[in-house]
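Readers of this paper often ask what the protein records in our data store actually look like. Such a record has a labelled line for the sequence and another for the backbone structure tokens. Nothing more is needed to write down the fold, since each code stands for a local backbone conformation. The remainder of this section carries one protein's record, kept here as part of the documentation.
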Amino acid sequence: MMKLPRVECPRCSREIAAGPVAGRLTKGRLWRHDAPGARRDADGVLLSCAGSLLIVDWPTPGEQLEIAIEPPEAEPDDAMALF
């Protein structure tokens, strides 16, 4: 699991995860999100905030993203070796 920095959406002011933009170390792209209070249109279809997918300034330019890696489960001592 990767932890992405959160950036305030310029349209709805919510804190939204921003993913890296290839070739632009100081920029991030906001993840798609719903604006508060505008969840569905008249047909019941979800509406995304106008700020979804905008390219914004990266909050921590040049910082390495964190990747959470689960340690493998230990095998029991009496497990049979295949090789």
Q: What stands out?
A: The longest strand covers residues 15-21. Strands lie at 2-3, 6-8, 15-21, 24-30, 55-57, 66-67.
